[in-house]
Amino acid sequence: MRLLTPLAAALALTLAACNVGPTYKRADLPKAPGGSFKENTEGSADAREDGWRQAAPTDTLPRGKWWTIFGDANLSALEDRVALDDQNIKQSFENYQAARALVRNARAALYPQISLNPSITGSGTSNGSGVLFGLPLQASWEPDLWGKIRNTITQQENLAQISAANLANETLSEQASLAQIYFELREQDALLELYARTIDNYKESLRLTHVLARTGIDSEQDVAQAEVTLHTAEATATAVATARAQYEHAIALLVGEVAGTFTIGPLPLDVSVPAVPVGVPSQILERRPDIAAAERTMSEENALIGVGKAAYYPDVTLNGSIGTQAANAGKLFSASSNYWSAGAAAAQPILDWGARKATVEQYEAQYRAAVASYRQTVLNAFKEVEDALVSSRQLAEQAARQKRAVTSAETYERLANTRYKTGVDTYLNVITAQTSLLNSRQTLVTLQANRIIAAVQLVQALGGGWHTGDLPTEKDTAKSPD
Q: Is 34 left (phi over 0), alpha (psi -120 to 50) or beta?
């Protein structure tokens, strides 16, 4: 009881203790856009013709499984695997668990450290020897008079929140990477199908050219030109197949599978481009995990300032012990063998040659750097959304025009073949028309894939359905892992 008296008094003093650190306030932000994003406009007639439309204000991005807006079951199955098997996500998850453990470690400093140190000591002189048995219970406690421990706890809680936001950001990044690579793979499938049809046409043209050369209508030069066109297309198709295999390997890596055992069959590029709901600019601050991480970093650096300022004040440590000591083990628990002690000590640096002042200045500079990083992160978020919006709209317009270019190229190629077969033009005109048609069709396939990928990038820029409400509270970070 005598030991508990000074501890109770110190506890009361701690509860009334002050916090010498600065109160955290979220930094002012750059001026946000008005009621809508600049590039979220209606779009040209060409863009609307090819399916571009603004999402209605009531539309919302699906929480969690945002990729369902593409309506692709194969993509959804792969995305489910990424969350479980991607090693980068696993690494971020374990980093978060480690950060939570550090919170619990920091909170332990609020309470007395108690240890039991049983001992047996032997001693002797020329007159004889003896054994001394001891069973001491010792306690040591540093009351948090100036907020050093509380600020350290806050710092660790903020670091855990940052780690949670980084986990969300890494998950979104890996999921978006999978979606982009998946649609790039499907682009290669569409190109391979295009080249297969084109190569068949080129083979037929070469056969016809051989026939006409044997009858004297064409020359061996025309045959050589037809062969060059065919073999060039075959070589390009081989390069497309190589790119397709590499995209497949990249997907295997994302889903945690050995590339040599992973296969995705050919798939058509028949996905409709969704209208991604963007909401209003102010919502971006609550929907991006990287912004949440930057904001929590400011709070963490602010708490460090409090830790640094607490060093100007004396550290008080309370020590106490109770126990029993006897020369006979059987008498250890007798009243005459009991003892206790209690005391307090204070430590205060007198001369440190400016070390504490420099430390505080360092933390203050780190806080100002965190403010700048936070504002830059917000500015970058607005930029990425505007970039994705203008890309989506302009690609729709470009695709509409490219479709007309393909139609014209098909007409050109048909007429060139007709004129060649009737002997009006040479085979060189056919080659020119065929090359123009192939290039136009290839460009259209790429534009279709780029439109889908731009939608993925817009979803990622908007945070993928994440919300700051998904971030664990400071209290939650101290919980043991499930």
A: beta
Q: Domain limits of the chain?
A: 1-26+112-143+314-347, 32-110+147-313+357-478
Question: In this structure, what token pair is assigned to residue 389?
Answer: 């919006």
What is 1-26+112-143+314-347's CATH topology? Outer membrane efflux proteins (OEP) (2.20.200)
CA distances from 424 to 85, 195, 217, 218 (A): 63, 28, 11, 12
Number of Cβ atoms within 10 Å of the Cβ of 421: 13
Same fold, 1-26+112-143+314-347 and 32-110+147-313+357-478: no
Other Cβ atoms within 10 Å of 129 Cβ, number: 9
CATH class of 32-110+147-313+357-478: mainly alpha
Per-residue pLDDT of the chain (482 residues; tens, 9 = 90+): 444 455 555 555 554 568 888 888 988 877 766 677 888 877 788 878 777 776 665 566 777 799 999 999 999 999 999 989 999 999 999 999 999 999 999 999 888 888 888 878 876 666 666 777 777 888 888 888 888 989 999 999 999 999 999 999 999 999 999 999 999 999 999 999 999 999 999 999 899 888 888 887 777 888 998 999 999 999 999 999 999 999 999 999 999 999 999 999 999 998 889 888 888 888 888 899 999 999 999 999 999 999 999 888 888 888 888 878 777 767 767 777 777 888 888 888 888 899 889 999 999 999 999 999 999 999 999 999 999 999 999 999 999 999 999 999 999 999 999 998 888 888 889 999 999 999 999 999 999 999 999 999 999 999 998 999 999 999 899 887 76
Report the distance separating Cα 388 and Cα 462, nearest Å: 10
CA neighbours within 13 Å on the CB side: how many for 17? Answer: 26
The closest alpha carbon to 273, from 21, 32, 71, 78, belongs to: 71
User: Which DSSP string do the residues of 148-184 spell out, in sequence order?
Assistant: HHHHHHHHHHHHHHHHHHHHHHHHHHHHHHHHHHHHH
Residue 422 phi/psi, 5-degree rounding, is -90, 0
